[in-house]
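Researcher: I'd like a candidate sequence for this fold, 71 residues long. If you have to choose between options at a position, lean toward the conservative one.
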């Protein structure tokens, strides 16, 4: 078995984001971002994934960069 950090290192950085210590999200499946309650990524299947306070600005900057077409 591999740690989440090991798995993260094998995946393309422009398609996956470590949003929390226990969450790695596929940005191609991201539906939208909710600011309320500290911030959550809403996935295509409707699941809410928390965005940690430490990663929030990095996540927003990544989305604003337009790499995925989100603004």
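Model: Candidate sequence:
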């Amino acid at each position: 078995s591999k740690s989440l950090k090991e798995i993260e290192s094998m995946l393309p950085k422009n398609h996956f984001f470590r949003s929390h210590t226990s969450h790695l999200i596929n940005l191609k499946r991201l539906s939208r971002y909710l600011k309320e309650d500290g911030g959550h990524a809403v996935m295509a299947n409707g699941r809410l994934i928390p965005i940690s306070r430490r990663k929030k600005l990095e996540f927003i900057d990544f989305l604003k960069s337009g790499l995925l077409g989100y603004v």
